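Quarterly update, task 2.4: thiamine diphosphate-bound model.
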Amino acid sequence: MNKIEIKYLDKIKSPKDLDELNDEQLKELATELRYDVIETVSKTGGHLGASLGVIELTVALHKIFDSPKDKIIWDVGHQSYPHKILTGRRDQMSTLRKKDGLSGFTKRDESKYDHFGAGHSSTAASAGLGMAIGRDLKNRDNHVVCIVGDGAMSAGQAYEALNNAGAEKSKLIVILNDNDMSIAPPAGAMSAYLAKLISGGTYLGLRNFAKQVIEKLPKSLEKGAKKAEEITRLIAGNGTLFEALGFYYVGPIDGHNLDHLLPVIRNVKNADNGPVIIHVVTQKGKGYKPAEDSDEKFHGVTKFNIATGEQEKPKKANVSYTKIFSNSLIKCAENDNDIVAVTAAMPSGTGLDKFKELYPQRFFDVGIAEQHAVTFSAGLAIEGLKPFATIYSTFLQRAYDQIIHDIAIQNLPVRFAIDRAGLVGADGPTHAGSFDLAYLSILPNFVVMAASNEVELVRMVKTAADYSLGPISFRYPRGNVFGLDIPTEIESLEIGKGKIIKQGEKIALLNLGTRIEEVKNASDTLEAMGLSCTIADARFAKPLDKDLIRDLSKNHELIITIEEGSSGGFGAHVLMFLADEGILDNGFKIRNLYLPDTFIQHGDVNDMYAQAGLNSENIVKLAMKALDINNNEIKIIKS
Ligand SMILES: Cc1ncc(C[n+]2csc(CCOP(=O)(O)OP(=O)(O)O)c2C)c(N)n1
């Protein structure tokens, strides 16, 4: 890719500056913007493919609409880099995803042009409809435009929003950004349906579009006919699913051709009508060959060489927890035909792509549909299969009612493999796996495990495969393992049994999860001060190893619990147990370390953990303060 001369982009400090450019100049601006995004992400890493797919769309929207008065809402927000550049953040793009820098997603407190914060998918139309109805009730006259990907259209929430919008009839513009890709190729029948719309006879040339838009906006529709009748009429008169839902459907149009985009969007903007969907066809990674050619279209990348597209490799060749999970599941599945694997649109992120290669019949990508993934797994379990619902902690939040109602109450043996547990670094708070320990360990029937290292993870996969008495979960973080040797013979864990790693006397460090190295370092420091430490790996947040906790309380002065999760999780249960047993009545001391009551912003994951007080230094300080050693000088990080 050759360097290009920047003629227009330097002058764009806000979307208003696009007023100065005519439609031909906008095309040149789009070329510059594409180059700028590639250059930026080559240095910062981040989400590239999706942004390259919406370059022309971003230019067209900011040219035509008057943001921030008009609301432009980007679903997921990972495609918002060109939007950030055109809305006054170009000179901060080098800080993207770094501590105190720009977020990799849209964020309301970052810019007045980010009308809705995102990170999780399929929320834009819901939020947009709320803003449209709010506008109407407040008698305002701004536009609301939501840009939703075809992948995002595999989620139930997208249909809930369209269904509601079609009935409300408030003016709302939804742009369906159809690049025929989720992160992986999109899953589900909707994707085939969109392809049919594109290849079928509905494609109309530009002049017909304008005509179609105008023809489709009969004033008479607004004149008091009953809602039901109107909707019926739309269904009868037009062919697409969107029309059946009460939308005017416009498209498909070429999303990289400003000669198509500009007149159609202008037309829709000026039309006096209810909800409209503009079906825009784009290409993920457009205009950058290495991205266009790659399997996942450079969805998420590390820093890369612009000339070759080669991405920076981590300094140490290392193995991720995800890979260990994937290998272990495959190993268990070799001997057990009942094991099936379920992902919600994250085959490569969860490592299940390898499982799919070996066992295509036993692999299910259900789309961005975590709720369905969970209830679908319930059905599989009822049929005697052993489903591994493999979902990142943050995305599993979506399926909480399904977890309670469909799994826990019916005590179904669904295995939850929870990746990206704890803080995740550059993706920030929308992607942090902070809450699963708390939200799962309060549920009757659940077994909740957390791996402290890769060997433990392998044992937990095996434990989950062997356990059929009810739901069971295990969590593991983003990132690389410690590099331990994995034994060839793996045994299941005894449910609800932790283990002592090192026996001491005064302080018991009761750890759950992969802060174990920090715990060991803290123990070394405390030992050097003459404070003898026991280190225990709790393994289970539920059921608690009550015998272990009782013993620790008998033989030590203080227990400190450590976990990579929010309040209300493992430590809270240990605390309640000690209180319930009356152990705290005698002055026994317990302290809990967990994620503080704040959303820790994106940055380097180790810094984030230090900020949370989940590091050895803070463990040492907490122990000293609890035991009244040098009390005054110690500042402890604690929520
Ligand atoms: C609830 C939820 N599950 C999973 C993800 C992970 N994820 C991020 S982007 C993406 C694909 C989105 O596809 P699409 O909406 O078509 O947008 P594109 O990337 O193609 O622009 C997925 C699955 C997410 N952000 N939110």
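Highlight for this quarter: The chain has a mean pLDDT of 92.
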